[in-house]
Amino acid sequence: MDIRDHEPLPMYKPANDRYQRMQYRRCGKSGIDLPLISLGLWHNFGHTDDFRIQRQLLRQAFDLGITHFDLANNYGPPYGAAEENFGRIMSKDFKPYRDEMIISSKAGWDMWPGPYGNFGSRKYLIASLDKSLRSMGLDYVDIFYHHRPDPDTPLEETMGALDQIVRQGKALYVGISQYSAEETAKASKLLKAMGTPCLIHQPRYSMLDRWVENGLLDVLEKEGIGSIAFSPLEQGVLTNKYLGGFPEDSRAKKDGRYLKMDAITPELLQKVEGLNAIAQERRQSLAQMAIAWLLKDPRITTVLVGVSKVSQLKDNVDALNKLEFTKDELKRIEEILKK
Fold first, then answer.
1. CA pair distance 36, 5, nearest whole angstrom
2. Among 45, 154, 221, 296, which one is most buried in terms of CB atoms within 10 A?
3. pTM for this model (two decimals)
4. What is the pLDDT of residues 65-91, one digit of tens each?
5. What percentage of residues in the chain have a pLDDT greater than 70?
6. Residue 130 and residue 93 in contact, taking contact as beta carbons nearer than 8 Å
7. Pairing of strands 171-177, 302-305
8. Within a 13 Å sphere around the CA of 96, how many CA atoms are in the beta-carbon half?
């Protein structure tokens, strides 16, 4: 395990004006407001990453009014590392502020060997959350998600496990991720019947990946379910990072699992260049415009960002300074995206 924390940071005291720095939006038909920007720990919180930087990122996020921190059982590397590191940071920096935080975790992807460490059985979901709570040193999470649909386990079993988890006091709310519109409607009906409504859906959504517009957002609105869009910058493509080539520290160079270099085609870069030109006219970075474009729809409760630097986090939050689009801007963006 390589956790570098050579120089101790001073004791953490949050910024007094943190809640004036952020905008919040109601999550579906619930009592919960979420910050328009949430911080995900999918990347950069493994045991091979710098623990000091991890602490700085979480401190800065909280100082900016980000109250929602999103994890999953298998975030790392290795699997589980992000929750372990988050637990250490909670103990060091955030224990007095637990009641001001929304902490989420998930299970649904491969986590441990054998038939009980994947997908959506009651056995897997409950065992996984128990392990996550131990890793993070928490009594409960605020939101627990089923991370992806399971084609083989009855939906009644999976939703029943989420209901049981809430009744056991291990989670306050439940959510689902990457469920289709039809699957979401079925899951919502089951959960409502049990008395544990679905709080939130976490779909992949960006200017370049718009599958949620084919019915899912309509279902969420009808069912009163909030949403948190992940991969809003399409793994860094919706920034100016790749307009001049492939930087050595870019995700396409460092980690081809989620973004392969050959996926960044000349046609894609042409779209990015066109979008970047509009962003410059708006006096925003492309990343900021991509985030604002998602938040123009009130059905998007919050946008989930992942960052490796404090400067990136601040840049993303500054997207909230200009959320409005003119009709002409939206028309030009659509023309570029449809090419």
1. 31
2. 45
3. 0.93
4. 999 999 999 999 999 999 999 999 999
5. 93
6. no
7. unpaired
8. 5
**Residue listed under structure tokens 């996926």:** 263
Q: Is domain 18-236+287-324 classified as CATH 1.10.238.10?
A: no
Q: How far apart are CA 127 and CA 110, in angstroms?
A: 13
Question: What are the angstrom distances between the C-alpha of 263 and each of 28, 67, 252, 272?
Answer: 35, 34, 9, 13
Specify the residue for token string 């710098």: 50
Please work out, in degrees rounded to the nearest 5, the angle formed at the alpha carbon of residue 49 by the alpha carbons of 45 and 55.
60
Q: Give the integer Cα–Cα distance in Å for 165 and 55.
A: 29
Q: Read off φ and ψ for residue 34, nearest 5 degrees.
A: -115, 150
pLDDT band (50, 70, 90) for residue 194: very high
What does the block give as tokens for 127? 């065992």
Q: Return the structure tokens found at 112.
A: 């441990």
Q: What gap in Å lies between CA 165 and CA 163, rounded to an integer?
A: 5
Give the pLDDT confidence score for residue 4 in this predicted structure: 54
Domain ranges of the chain: 18-236+287-324
What's 12's DSSP letter? P
Considering the chain, what is the average pLDDT of its residues? 94
Q: Give the helix/strand (H/E) hosting 194.
A: helix 181-194
Read off the DSSP letter of residue 90.
I
The β-bridge relationship of strands 33-35 and 226-229 is unpaired
Residue range 299-306: mean pLDDT, rounded: 98
Q: Tell how many helices (H) and how many strands (E) occur in the chain.
A: 11, 10
Bridge partners, residue 26, by sequence: 33
Could you tell me if 197 and 187 are in contact, meaning their C-beta atoms sit under 8 angstroms apart? no
Residue environment code for 214-249, b if the CB has 16+ CB neighbours within 10 A, otherwise e: eebbebbeebebbbbbbbbbbbbbbbbbbeeeeeee
Is the bond preceding 77 in cis, omega lying within 30 degrees of 0? yes
